[in-house]
């Protein structure tokens, strides 16, 4: 008869991801800093990625470049990032760099969020966390090679 769907690996990964996403969204909204969860995520990636271009950001947040462009424009409008047209590998690219205001808002939010992440990390051993990360990376690569995607 097989296992129930909710005991399947794909259900557990999807529901865990969804739960984490919803909890993160709720937390960012409750903080009421005037930045959306996706904007905060994008800003964090831009801060943490040297010479982050729109293509890099799109790859990391799993959105197409059109949606990533809208997101970058929203961050620029709020004065959290600058967008500069440069050449990278002989191609024109939009380089996204954080502003002082962007770094400050990110820092304020991180001061609140980081202790919450640490609480979670205390309940899961570092060894288990590292193993889960490696296994999820492996699974993602298996899926990439097994299924043709346009991500």
Strand sequence of the main sheet, in spatial order?
Answer: 1-3-2
Amino- and carboxy-terminal Cα gap: 34 Å
Computed CA radius of gyration, to the nearest angstrom: 18 Å
Q: Share of helix among residues?
A: 55-70%
How is the biggest beta sheet arranged?
3 strands, antiparallel
CATH fold label: Arc Repressor Mutant, subunit A
Query: What share of residues are in beta strands?
Result: 5-15%
Number of domains: 1
Describe the global form.
globular
Mean pLDDT value:
90
Query: Uncertain regions: pLDDT < 50 for 5+ in a row?
Result: none
Number of helical segments with 4 or more residues: 6
CATH architecture: Orthogonal Bundle
CATH superfamily, please? Winged helix-like DNA-binding domain superfamily/Winged helix DNA-binding domain
Summing up helix and strand content along with how strands pair, one would put the structural category as: mainly alpha
Number of strands: 3
CATH class: Mainly Alpha
| Helix-strand string | HHEHHEEHH
Please explain how this structure is put together.
The protein has a 3-stranded antiparallel sheet with strand order 1-3-2. It is 67% helix and 12% strand. The two termini are 34 Å apart. The protein has one domain: Arc Repressor Mutant, subunit A (Orthogonal Bundle). It has 151 residues and is mainly alpha-helical. A hairpin with a 2-residue loop joins strand 2 and strand 3 (91-98). The protein is built from 6 helices and 3 strands, in the order ααβααββαα. The chain has helices at residues 9-31, 37-48, 54-61, 65-77, 100-123, 126-146, and strands spanning 52-53, 81-88, 91-98. The protein is globular, with a radius of gyration of 18 Å.
């Amino acid at each position: 008869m097989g296992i129930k769907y909710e005991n399947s690996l794909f259900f557990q990964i999807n529901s865990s991801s969804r739960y984490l996403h919803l909890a993160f969204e709720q937390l960012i909204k409750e903080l009421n800093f005037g930045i959306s969860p996706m904007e905060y995520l994008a800003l964090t990636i831009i801060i943490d990625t040297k010479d982050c271009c729109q293509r890099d950001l799109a790859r990391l947040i799993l959105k197409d470049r059109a949606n990533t462009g809208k997101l970058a424009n929203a961050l620029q409008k709020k004065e959290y990032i600058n967008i500069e047209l440069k050449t990278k590998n002989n191609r024109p690219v939009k380089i996204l760099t954080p502003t002082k205001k962007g770094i400050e808002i990110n820092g304020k939010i991180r001061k609140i969020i980081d202790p919450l992440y640490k609480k979670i990390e205390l309940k899961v051993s570092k060894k288990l966390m590292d193993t889960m990360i490696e296994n999820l990376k492996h699974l993602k690569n298996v899926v990439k090679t097994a299924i043709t995607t346009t991500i």
